[in-house]
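> call design_seq(struct)
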């Protein structure tokens, strides 16, 4: 059975809220920015602060890691149909900032991101 992908940036934000694993983010302070391109794209901020997740729209005043990828690829990652590591190796995900923090993003969610 195919897992359903979010169809909008708002649905993706809701997915992130629902699957956030606060216990995995205790003591963490990081800001991620997602620049999702194409239809249903936009800018999404993920601020993780000691087990709390705050989401916002638009450019973050400061971010530790910035990802740029197609919205369809991001939604596919959330649905489990795409592999972020393979997309990165294929050049479909660009990463700016701390790459060690970039790799940790998935560990803060109950389902792998």
């Amino acid at each position: 059975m195919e897992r359903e992908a979010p169809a909008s940036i708002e649905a993706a934000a809701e997915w992130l809220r629902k699957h956030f694993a606060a216990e995995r983010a205790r003591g963490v302070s990081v800001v991620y920015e997602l620049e999702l391109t194409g239809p249903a794209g936009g800018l999404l901020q993920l601020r993780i602060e000691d087990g709390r997740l705050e989401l916002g729209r638009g450019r973050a005043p400061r971010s530790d890691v910035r990802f740029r990828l197609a919205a369809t690829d991001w939604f596919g990652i959330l649905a489990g149909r795409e592999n972020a590591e393979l997309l990165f190796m294929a050049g479909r995900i660009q990463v700016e900032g701390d790459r060690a923090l970039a790799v940790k993003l998935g560990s803060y969610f109950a389902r792998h991101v």
